[in-house]
Amino acid sequence: MDWSEAVTRVLFEHRDEKDVHTFEGWKAVGGFSALEKALKMKPEEVVEEVKAAGLRGRGGAGFPTGVKWGFIPKNTDKPIYLCVNADESEPGTCKDRVLMEDLPFMCLEGAIIAAYAIKASMAFWYIRGEFDLPERRMRAAIETLREKGLIGKNILGSGWDLDFVIHRGAGAYICGEETGLISSLEGDKGQPKIKPPFPAIKGAFGCPTIVNNVESLAAVPWIMRNGASAYAKLGTEKSNGTKLFSVSGQVNRPGVYEVEMGYPLRDLLENECGGMKRGRALKAVIPGGSSMPVLPAEVALQTNLDYESVQAAGSMLGSGGMIVIDDSQSMPELLKILGRFYSHESCGQCTPCREGTPWGSRVLDRVADGAARPDDLETLERIARFLSGTTICLLADSLAMPIRSFFQHFREEFEALVPTEAGEKSGG
Ligand SMILES: Cc1cc2nc3c(=O)[nH]c(=O)nc-3n(C[C@H](O)[C@H](O)[C@H](O)COP(=O)(O)O)c2cc1C
Ligand code: SF4
Predict the structure, then answer these.
(1) What is the CA radius of gyration of the chain?
(2) What is the rounded CA–CA span in Å between residue 318 and residue 300?
(3) pLDDT mean over 177-185
(4) Ligand 2 pocket check for 387: Cβ under 6 Å
(5) Core-most of 12, 216, 226, 283, by most CB within 10 Å?
(6) Average pLDDT score over the chain
(7) Residue closest to 15 by CA, chosen among 132, 118, 95, 116
């Protein structure tokens, strides 16, 4: 593909326009025309449109959004809920924050259309506890839409009612996992639940519930305005549309960038991010948030940014939280930090995660801090094995995957810190 032409913007199409974070600003760029259009369609037709667009969930798993909406049982006598996942806590990821701060009405328009499509009459906006400005923006936007009659009874004369409740998290990463989010919303400890049943069948308060990431919903107004086929034309065959990448680390211009799916990672680093800081060499990239496997520079620089290409390279696109690592950084030191994070955030329900993440973290601490024992790398490999696939949610895997990939590509850095049986460190 020729990327010399400007990359199409979907989510950030109007981001730079004046006052677009206000109701009038969003209206001025065609805001709410997508909602008007959707309300003239049947809910099932809206679901089909989003399916045809090929939009995939941007919260990490990449599950097709329209297909998920279609899982809501037909003719249920229970209320149906929409939960907007604005908990955004994966290290390296900060795109939902930008969407809520800069384009709150676009996010809400997408959520209202989604609620209509799944026939919900109540929506919850579960927002990360530390997000002050985004919360103020969303709260004010919801109030404004209530005053304008775009939230409440008989929206735009459609006969359909919808209300929104903002629920502010209390700082636990695990409440971003959809069933942990639901537990927290219900007033319980924010602990994930075993699936199945999936939330679409039995979610919040035992009722059918769709949990969607902010970025997924934010793409819906564009899709409704421009049509599913316009969206499906963007990106690659299986990864349609555009994606936000929150780039952090050792680049000259860290930030949140929108690119079409399939855009080369190398171009994102060189063009949008202005290259490496202080002219240092790229050592590695974590492409999709800190829980995703790390890619060494030579692999990362050959990778395109779509679900299939990143997977073929040995990692995952995840939430698009891209962490850029240069050759001055110590991989054992970085993995130590990840170990501390995941160990701290374990909710404690599953024995392998409750015991394994702090154990892994303690071993990673001593390796990085020069106090390693001869068999520490084998111990870490063993811990990674029993953290994988043995627990209720994927938090345990979120430490296992980095351990495995850091060892796979940068093992010599760890070996250099581990003494041999004779008490020497192999790295001298
Ligand atoms: C440990 C863990 C943390 C997660 N944190 C988030 C999060 O902060 N935001 C989010 O949207 N999804 C998060 N997810 C994914 C959600 O469980 C869920 O898949 C997502 O909200 C679905 O929305 P989507 O289909 O629009 O992507 C997390 C998953 C796990 C396992
Ligand atoms: S894997 Fe960890 S975070 Fe997830 S439910 Fe089990 S103990 Fe909680």
Answers:
(1) 22
(2) 15
(3) 98
(4) no
(5) 216
(6) 96
(7) 95
In this predicted model, what pLDDT tens digit does every residue of 19-42 receive, in sequence order?
A: 999 999 999 999 999 999 999 999
What proportion of the chain, given as a percentage, has pLDDT over 70?
96
Task: Assess whether pLDDT exceeds 60 at residue 427.
Answer: no
The model's pLDDT over 301-349, given as tens digits with 9 standing for 90+, comes to: 999 999 999 999 999 999 999 999 999 999 999 999 999 999 999 999 9
Residues 6+ apart with CB under 8 A from 59: 85, 176, 178, 211, 212, 213, 215, 216, 319
With a 6 Å cutoff on the Cβ, whether 174 touches ligand 2 is yes
Cis preceding-peptide flag for 208 (omega within 30 of 0): no
Structure tokens at 12: 């950030």
Q: What are phi and psi of 89, to 5 degrees?
A: -130, 0
Cβ contact 368:428 at 8 Å: no
| Structure tokens, 337 | 């930090």
Ligand 2 pocket check for 291: Cβ under 6 Å? no
CA distance 309 to 299: 11
Check pocket membership of 393 for ligand 2, CB cut-off 6 A: yes
298 close to 265: Cβ distance less than 8 angstroms: no
Largest CA distance in the chain: 80
Amino acid letter for position 196: P
Instruction: Report the length, in residues, of the chain.
Output: 428
Ligand nearest to the CA of 193: 2
Whether 178 lines ligand 1, by a CB cut-off of 6 Å, is: yes
All domains in the chain, ordered by first residue: 23-231 (3.40.50.11540), 235-326 (3.10.20.600), 331-415 (1.20.1440.230)
3-state secondary structure 333-371: HHHHHHHHHHHHHCCCCCHHHHHHHHHHHHHHHHHHCCC
Q: Edge-to-edge strand order for the sheet containing 163-168? A: 163-168, 122-127, 81-86, 209-213
- 246 close to 264: Cβ distance less than 8 angstroms: no
Structural contact between residues 325 and 286, judged by C-beta atoms closer than 8 angstroms: yes
Neighbouring C-alpha atoms within 13 Å toward the C-beta of 150: 23
What's the 57 CA to ligand 1 centre distance in angstroms? 9
Please indicate whether residue 326, judged by its CB atom, sits closer than 6 Å to ligand 1.
no
Question: Half-sphere exposure of residue 188, counting CA atoms within 13 Å on the CB side?
Answer: 13
Ligand 2 centre from 225 Cα, in Å?
Answer: 40
Ligand 2 atom with the smallest distance to the CA of 347 is 8
Ligand 1 pocket residue status of 57, Cβ below 6 Å: yes
Provide the percentage of residues in the chain whose pLDDT is more than 90. 96
